[in-house]
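Board notes (copied after class):
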Amino acid sequence: YTYSIEHESFDGTLTKEQYDCTIKLMCKIIDYIKENKLIQQGDQILVALSGGPDSVCLLHILYELKNKFS
């Protein structure tokens, strides 16, 4: 799967290594979602956010992918 980051939060402030790592992670997440049919087009998702780094990361990932699955 090919993915590119176009969201405003990725405005060149990432190093090449950080960008590559982020792209690799997003591709893995997209593949996992598709393989396991976790999100279908038109689904609405509720995210419980504790404020910890893992839940904040999940929120950012789902926000970045919202147009992909809408």
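Comment from the instructor: The chain has a mean pLDDT of 80. Residues 30 and 36 are 10 Å apart (CA to CA).
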